[in-house]
Write a structure and sequence with these properties.
Length: 524
């Protein structure tokens, strides 16, 4: 058990669309020796021929809703890479995945630096205290100055950025990286299509062969920069990385396999094995706790076109999971047998016989699970991992067919409970139409789709104008607050007061009008 826990790493890659998350994932699989899997990730992009209604929605939007947990071996490590849906399917799921990981790799495009979605995902990681590693990708393209990128990391994210390696050139002249710990330069060779490991030449900067391979201008600049780094006197503090105070920074090009292995090795060395989680009674549940326990962090409906079922993704926190084991579903108090546990890869499923802390199992077919629910052999354990995130899209939803109203209500209530989206109620509401909030607009389409497919209820959406949400200090009463134009007060499903704003400007105005009232993008 101890050995299985020690060799595991569970993480997610966070990035803005197009920064290179998919490419880096493929390269990790390539280096993990799972070449056939590397192909499958690509295949997923073209895998649009299946004829399910669900995939039809995917097809129509050209996006992938079915996200996956990839598991692979690398140098004796068992790695779980959890996918964070990006692009237009950015949603609560993207955030929720971050509750199930122990670390994150943030991928930046060297030409662009920190972008909008990276920032949002970073904030969630930091809030949870998740260690963050940074990969500055696409160094083979016109890139911003490394120092400028590091400065932006520190300024925008308020985190120390520690370059573990340093790029040797940029754009066409990008030849490799200099490793700050070993003081060795790694020169890579491009291989056709980046299809296999890049041959590598290692030597000190003074090595004539290294000097020869770099153009004189690059060589001179690199020497100056390296001297400056050495002179800066900062030392690497592994504890600060674990406490998310410092992000180790690696440069490279995922497409060309440059720097990928150094990133993976550095990540494995400095990230932690599966971490404990807090039970609601205050106890810390360590991975080696004798009883199996885990929590549901994501529910996916109708992934398999053959069966209209649901998959509840469970992150194992403690103990050993075995197929057919009897567990308690803590929220309902019911005992159940987990016979239908699967490893899920794209649309393929493989039965799981056993799993250890850090692993993810997909429980197929059981209904009645909600996001955040605990499954355990020891009914005293109860996790509180229900993550809330400030919605950026709001919509009213109603039933256009009075005869379907009951089905509509039941369906909506169940989807709200499942956590597909969030429900709000305006303070002093003038209409009874349910108001929904979500992190991305796709979520509303999913709600409509599932209402129709699973409950036979049509629905109609009407967009609402708010785009910024903040939770309000719970000691403040709604009646005390001034709500200027462009702002409404509301309660979430747990009766917590929030302010909905039509723009960041409206939020600022609200804050000015209500000086001293604390606001937060996550519930207090
Ligand atoms: P994702 O949206 O973050 O998953 O990004 P992808 O991995 O799909 O990459 C977006 C685009 O950038 C694709 O066309 C990739 O081939 C390209 N790309 C990814 N990494 C690199 C790189 O290191 N160098 C260059 N030149 N292109 C890259």
């Amino acid at each position: 058990m101890a050995a299985e826990v020690a060799r595991r790493r569970s993480f997610a890659i966070v990035s803005h669309p197009d920064a290179g998350k998919t490419t880096l994932t493929e390269k990790f699989l390539l280096y993990g020796g799972a070449v056939h899997l590397a192909g499958s990730v690509k295949a997923r992009r073209n895998q649009r021929s299946t004829t399910s209604d669900w995939l039809e929605l995917e097809q129509k939007r050209g996006i992938s809703i079915s996200s996956t947990v990839l598991q692979f071996e690398y140098n004796g490590h068992r790695i779980n890479l959890l996918d964070t849906p990006g692009h237009q399917d950015f949603s609560e799921d993207t955030y929720r995945v971050l509750t199930a990981v122990d670390a994150a790799i943030m991928v930046l495009d060297a030409g662009k630096g920190i972008e909008d979605q990276t920032l949002k995902l970073f904030e969630v990681c930091r809030h949870r205290g998740v260690p963050i590693f940074t990969f500055i990708n696409k160094m083979d393209r016109p890139a911003r100055e490394p120092l400028d990128l590091l400065d932006e990391l520190e300024r925008v994210l308020s985190i120390n950025a520690y370059p573990v390696n340093w790029p040797l050139g940029a754009g066409k002249e990008f030849k490799g990286v200099w490793d700050r710990h070993t003081k060795m330069a790694h020169l890579f060779e491009r291989v056709p299509g980046g299809a296999y490991r890049s041959p590598e030449f290692t030597g000190s900067l003074a090595d004539p062969l290294i000097r020869e391979k770099l153009d004189p201008q690059t060589y001179e600049t690199v020497c100056e920069e390296v001297e400056m780094l050495e002179g800066a006197g900062t030392t690497f503090n592994a504890e600060d990385v674990l406490h998310a105070k410092t992000t180790p920074v690696y440069f490279g090009s995922a497409l060309n396999n440059f720097g990928v292995e150094l990133l993976l090795d550095g990540f494995l060395e400095h990230s932690t094995p599966p971490t404990p989680r807090q039970s609601m009674d205050g106890a810390t549940i360590e991975p080696h706790h004798p009883s199996f326990s885990g929590f549901v962090f994501k529910i996916q409906a109708n992934m398999d076109p053959q069966h209209r079922d649901r998959v509840a993704f469970v992150r194992v926190v403690s103990g050993k999971f075995e197929r057919n084991m009897a567990v308690t579903h803590v929220q309902s108090g019911k005992k159940m047998r987990l016979s239908n546990a699967n490893k899920i890869f794209g649309s393929d499923r493989e039965t799981v016989e056993e799993a250890y802390p850090g692993d993810v199992v997909g429980i197929v077919g059981k209904s009645g699970f909600s996001i955040g629910d605990t499954l355990t052999e020891d009914a005293a354990i109860r996790y509180d991992e229900i993550p809330y995130f400030a919605p950026e899209c709001f919509s009213y939803i109603e039933s256009p067919e009075p005869v379907q109203f009951k089905r509509f209500r039941t369906g909506l209530e169940q989807l709200l409970q499942e956590g597909v989206m969030q429900g709000y109620e305006l303070v002093n509401a003038t209409r009874a139409t349910p108001l929904l909030g979500a992190a991305g607009p796709l979520q509303f389409e999913i709600v409509q789709y599932r209402l129709k497919a699973e409950y036979g209820a049509d629905s109609r959406l009407e967009a609402a104008p708010w785009t910024v949400t903040r939770w309000i200090d719970p000691t403040v009463e709604a009646a005390r607050l001034k709500a200027p134009h462009g702002v409404r007060l509301a309660h979430d499903r747990l009766q917590r007061l929030v302010v909905l704003c039509e723009s960041p400007w409206a939020l600022r105005y609200f804050a000015e009008q209500n000086e001293g009232v604390q606001l937060s993008s996550l519930p207090f």
